[in-house]
Write a structure and sequence with these properties.
With 333 residues, the protein is α/β, with parallel strands linked by helices. The chain contains 16 helices and 9 strands. The chain is 46% helix and 14% strand. The protein has an 8-stranded parallel beta barrel, surrounded by 6 helices.
């Protein structure tokens, strides 16, 4: 294994992996490598920098994903991110959205491997932390054997130390971003061959991974795995990530105890003026399959958006689960 740090990663996800989500995920796993939502270099340079880059110290290791195609802007934004304390700068070469494509970055840059290399080199020259790339196997009618190889050669030569590969092509015309996560066929073999070609570079597999056992099996071929929607929609699996991937005990014995541990963070956020629902919206999936899960979600959805909603709302929602669980375990007469 080249780098234990990349064995298990949670993907950058727009509108999902904000700082509240990442803190919650860090509660569930000490070791998972966490990534921000994609932030454009221009937004870092000209937008509300504190809102975009702020994170809790307990999130480490936490990595900043940048989007853009101007090497100078990316380098400056990366330097700012490094100053904020991020552990890695990741360049997005995989987003297939039309808006991103129209701006000439994301998966569009797979068509411009020389420019992608220039962007990585510019970032590498400005920061001392690792610089990595997240990409697809190719775009549109590209041959993945050639496209991925050429891109890898350019970015590795420029200083990229890890390639995170979503094992599908991206179709920049004709498919929505959602369809691009599901329609193009997966090609794990192509990613495995990439690792064989570059044994000294960290290669992380992303896309379609659905079970922890299946992810563990992939570590025979690659250095790490990255999951996205699965971690968000079923965060309970993060409780098992540390034992399975790192040989360390789980932080919490039950999902209920993990929710209780989130309450002090909620109280701090509320004191800062963060609305309750902005923090609790990320935890709905943790109760999936538990007795009282539906009542928990309904209570939280209805009450968390009310003016003045406090941490007691989460406590009230959790009581639905605890009461239902206790009733389910009552001895039958």
């Amino acid at each position: 294994m080249q780098n234990q740090a990349y064995r298990f990663c949670v993907a950058p996800m727009m509108d999902w992996t904000d700082r509240h989500c990442r803190f919650f995920h860090r509660l569930l796993s000490r070791r998972a490598r966490l990534y921000t939502e994609m932030v454009t270099a221009a937004a870092v340079l000209h937008g509300d920098r504190r809102r975009l880059l702020q994170f809790n110290e307990e999130e480490h290791p936490v990595c900043l994903q940048l989007g853009g195609c101007c090497s100078a802007q990316l380098a400056e934004a990366a330097a700012i991110g490094a100053d904020y304390g991020y552990d890695e700068i990741n360049l997005n070469l995989g987003c297939p959205s039309e808006r991103v494509g129209n701006s000439g970055f994301g998966a569009f840059l797979m068509r411009e491997p020389e420019l992608a290399g220039e962007c990585v080199a510019a970032i590498r020259a400005r920061v001392k932390i690792p610089v990595t790339v997240k990409c697809r196997t190719g775009v549109d009618d590209q041959d993945p054997e050639t496209a991925l190889q050429v891109l890898a050669e350019r970015v590795i030569a420029a200083g990229c130390c890890a390639l995170i590969v979503h094992a599908r092509k991206a179709w920049l015309k004709g498919l929505s971003p959602k369809e691009n996560r599901e329609v193009p066929p997966l090609d794990y073999e192509r990613v495995r061959r990439l690792k064989q070609s570059y044994p000294g570079i960290v290669v992380v597999l992303n896309g379609g991974l659905s079970t922890l056992s299946g992810m563990q099996a992939e570590l025979e071929y690659v250095d790490g795995v990255m999951i996205g929607r699965l971690a968000y929609q079923n965060p309970a699996l993060l409780l098992d990530a540390d034992p399975i991937f790192f040989g360390e005990r789980s932080r919490f014995a039950t999902r209920e105890s993990a929710i209780h541990a989130f309450i002090p963070y909620l109280e701090e956020g509320l004191a800062e003026g963060v609305p309750l629902h902005a923090m609790t919206r990320h935890i709905f999936g943790l109760v999936n399959g538990l007795p009282g899960a539906r009542a928990f979600r309904c209570h939280l959805a209805e009450q968390a958006r009310k003016p003045g909603a406090g941490a007691d709302v989460l406590c009230g929602a959790l009581r639905h689960v605890e009461r239902a669980s206790a009733k389910a375990h009552e001895p039958s007469m």
